[in-house]
């Protein structure tokens, strides 16, 4: 039977040491804190022992503090990328382009659709990734045809079109 009160203190300290030795990734916020503590201590104490003191105050290894200080600047924050809004005309134009592929007995892949849109005079100014997102929004999906991935309409849209027409 397991009795936690019977565990010796030496076993618990070795577990604590192994936890401390484990590498951790510092978030950019934590790196900001380490750098700001270093800068404050540098102003107060001068050059002697600042890195060691920063390490003790922030509980971050000395080597990591050195790496953050040598970088010399605050880490970059990730910003959310905003995309241009796609209007209804462009959505319909993309849909017609895909239908033209099927009318010409061609298999529409994402790259071929994108190249066709870039060659056209309509001025498609979006990236391939944005086109992929647009195709998902319009209800197209990918399927395999002759061992190649191709763009197809979802069965739900096909049923809706049959009911309308």
From TrEMBL:
Bias (Polar residues) ranges: 7-17
Positions of region (Disordered): 1-24
Entry protein name: (apollo) hypothetical protein
Annotated source species: Parnassius apollo
């Amino acid at each position: 039977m397991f009795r936690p009160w019977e565990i010796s203190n030496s076993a618990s300290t070795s577990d604590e040491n192994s936890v401390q030795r484990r590498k951790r990734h510092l978030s950019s916020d934590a790196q900001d804190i380490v750098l700001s503590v270093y800068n404050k201590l540098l102003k107060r104490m001068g050059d002697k022992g600042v890195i060691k003191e920063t390490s003790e105050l922030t509980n971050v290894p000395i080597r990591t503090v050195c790496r953050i200080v040598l970088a010399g600047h605050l880490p970059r924050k990730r910003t959310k990328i905003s995309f241009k809004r796609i209007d209804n005309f462009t959505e319909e134009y993309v849909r017609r382009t895909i239908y033209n592929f099927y009318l010409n007995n061609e298999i529409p892949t994402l790259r071929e659709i994108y190249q066709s849109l870039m060659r056209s005079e309509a001025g498609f100014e979006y990236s391939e990734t944005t086109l992929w997102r647009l195709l998902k929004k319009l209800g197209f999906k990918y399927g395999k045809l002759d061992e190649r991935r191709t763009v197809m309409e979802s069965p739900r849209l096909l049923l809706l079109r049959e009911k309308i027409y």
